[in-house]
Amino acid sequence: MSFKIQKKDKFTLIKTNVEKLDTTIAPALKSELVILNSDGVKNIIIDLGATRYCDSSGLSAILVANRLCKNANGSLVITGLQEPVKNLISISQLDTILNIADTLEDSIEMLNKTVGSNEE
């Protein structure tokens, strides 16, 4: 599988296992995001630590995740960005709308601040 999904108490972690988040992977990721959303998942952390390349379809999947989380009154946090992906997000000016953290621990902390302690 191209990504691994772990459901936690207050969030779901999606960890990519691919070097490229592109048209071969992004549609499956989008589908999984929609399923998670329909199952009531509101808070998602996407760990892109293994991903060195992302194209427009990969960015689209990330934006779908962001929209689904926001519409469910939740939050999306992206973590583990390697330099090429970080640069693409910055050039696309998506760093102004996406929650980006350096580490998984920082992501969890960021989610806890935005979600609050009363959310499950």
So, the CATH homologous superfamily? Answer: STAS domain
Strand neighbour order, sheet with most strands: 1-2-4-6-7
The overall strand count is 7
Characterize the biggest β-sheet. 5 strands, mixed
- Spell out the helices and strands N to C: EEEHEEHEHEH
* Number of helices, counting only DSSP H or I runs of 4 residues or more: 4
Q: What integer value in Å does the Rg equal? A: 13 Å
What is the level 1 CATH name? Alpha Beta
Summed up, the domain count is 1
β-strand amount: 15-25%
Give me the CATH architecture, please.
Answer: 2-Layer Sandwich
What spatial form do the alpha-carbon principal axes imply?
A: globular
Helical content, roughly? 40-55%
Structural class, by secondary structure, is alpha/beta
Quaternary status of these chains? single chain
What can you see in these coordinates?
With 120 residues, the protein is α/β, with parallel strands linked by helices. The protein has a single domain, classed as STAS domain (Transcription Regulator spoIIAA), CATH 3.30.750. The strands form 2 sheets. The chain has a 5-stranded mixed β-sheet with strand order 1-2-4-6-7. Strands 3-5 form a two-stranded parallel ribbon. The mean pLDDT is 93.
Keywords:
globular; about 120 residues; Transcription Regulator spoIIAA; alpha/beta; 7 strands; 4 helices; single chain; about 40% helix; two-stranded parallel ribbon; five-stranded mixed sheet; about 20% strand
